[in-house]
Design goal:
- The protein is of the alpha/beta class.
- It has a domain at 2-168 and 202-229 and 261-280: 3-Layer(aba) Sandwich (Rossmann fold), CATH 3.40.50.720.
- 43% of the residues lie in helices and 20% in strands.
- It contains ten helices and 14 strands.
- It has helices at 11-22, 51-57, 73-78, 80-100, 135-154, 176-185, 205-214, 235-246, 269-275, 283-312, and strands spanning 2-6, 26-31, 42-45, 63-66, 105-111, 122-123, 157-163, 165-167, 190-193, 199-204, 223-227, 232-234, 251-254, 265-266.
- Strands 3-2-1-4-5-7-11 form a seven-stranded parallel beta sheet, sandwiched between helices. A three-stranded mixed beta sheet has the order 8-10-12. Strands 6-14 form a two-stranded parallel sheet.
- Strand 1, helix 1 and strand 2 form a beta-alpha-beta unit.
- Helix 1 (11-22) crosses helix 7 (205-214), helix 4 runs parallel beside helix 5 (135-154) and helix 6 packs across helix 10.
- The structure holds nicotinamide-adenine-dinucleotide.
- Residues 7, 9-13, 31-33, 47-49, 67-69, 71, 86, 90, 109, 111, 140, 163, 165-166 line the site of nicotinamide-adenine-dinucleotide.
């Protein structure tokens, strides 16, 4: 079986490729940049805006995980026009190339943000959605709708996965956990505005990747599943977990709004029931793994600079 992962060089996509490889699946990555986490992956470089390159990449492929996107909401906010081209038109290109190549299944990486404007506080896959306030969510939802249209019109099997907030090795540096870890390792205090009681649910990226692979099960065809974390974690807990792992870390409180985040309660019960998926890695263990990865990355960078300095000595 051969699987193509668009965006397979990115944070979540790279972990999906790892899990697929673990299960003995042949993997091909399609991305604008080369995968840097391992070398034993077939790689097609290209943009999802390039339909000809996509057509070549789909050759002999049985299933596609489509993750390539402008995934950072700040980037989408700054450049909605470009983001729409990648997240929406890019998705149609992937669907069209897959249809042309008779790919059996498309798995689309969406987000639990699609529930942000729903009326209910407790939401699941059957909750009616409202027009989203954020442009990022609008593009991801458009992608979902196009997947569903392709499934109905052209009898393609489609699975939509709505991811919670992922964290773990290879995460983007700009997210809250990476920022706190970098500060802590640089000896800077972790600053919390307000009482730090604002909470989020995070999903460890390898758990998320496992859920993606399970979605290849035939029961998942033409279904939507939430893949969200289990534990509610406050900002204060994030800081304290990092302090517990690293030891000498200062936490400072500055005036700010009290914890007022009333996020939706997102159910992943259907995913648990039908795909036998639930997150396994605790928040503390996940942060520990992120810190280990981060330290190794920084050490490698320093060693490489030192080696170059040595070579450039006059
Ligand atoms: N990270 C999150 O918080 C989060 C949460 C929910 C859903 N998602 C979704 O999961 C998917 C992956 O997100 P991520 O966090 O791994 O992002 P990422 O930015 O780490 O990875 C995205 C990958 O897509 C590639 N890419 C971007 N534009 C491309 C193009 N035009 N052609 C080919 N490749 C292109 C990038 O090079 C990158 O490797 C996205 O679809 C995102 O919307 C992410």
């Amino acid at each position: 079986m051969k699987v193509l992962v668009t965006g397979g060089s990115g944070f979540i996509g790279s972990h999906i490729t790892d899990k697929l490889k673990d299960k003995g699946v042949e993997v091909r990555v399609y991305d604008g940049v080369m995968p840097s986490h391992r070398k034993d992956i077939e790689f097609y470089q290209g943009s999802i805006l390039d339909i000809t390159a996509l057509n070549f990449a789909m050759n002999g492929v049985d299933a596609v995980f489509h993750l390539a996107a402008v995934a950072d909401v700040k980037d989408v906010y700054n450049d909605p026009y470009y983001s729409e081209s990648i997240n929406v038109r890019g998705t149609i290109n992937v669907l069209q190339a897959a249809r042309r190549a008779n790919v059996k299944r498309i798995i689309y990486g969406s987000t639990t943000w699609v529930y942000s404007d729903a009326e209910a506080d407790k939401v699941d896959e059957s909750t009616p959605l409202h027009a989203p306030s954020h442009f990022y969510t609008a593009t991801k939802l458009a992608g979902e709708y196009y997947c569903q249209s392709y499934s109905k019109l052209y009898e393609m099997e489609v699975t939509i996965l709505r991811y919670g907030i992922p964290y773990g090795p290879r995460a983007r540096d700009g997210a809250v956990i990476p920022i706190f870890v970098r500060k802590a390792l640089n000896g800077e205090p972790l600053t919390i505005a307000g009482d730090g009681a604002q909470f989020r649910k995070f999903v460890y990226v390898e758990d998320l990747a496992e859920g993606n692979v399970l979605a290849l099960n035939s029961i998942a065809k033409n279904k939507i599943y939430n893949l969200d974390g289990k534990e509610k974690v406050t900002i204060k807990q994030i800081a304290e977990t990092i302090q517990k792992i690293l030891g000498d870390v200062k936490i400072e409180y500055i005036p700010g709004r009290p914890g007022d985040f009333s996020g939706k309660e997102i159910s992943s019960e259907l995913t648990q029931r039908e795909l036998d998926w639930e997150p396994k890695v605790s928040f503390e263990e996940g942060v520990r793994r992120y810190i280990n990865w981060y330290k190794q990355r920084e050490e490698k960078r320093e060693t490489e600079w030192a080696r170059l300095d040595e070579k450039l000595k006059v």
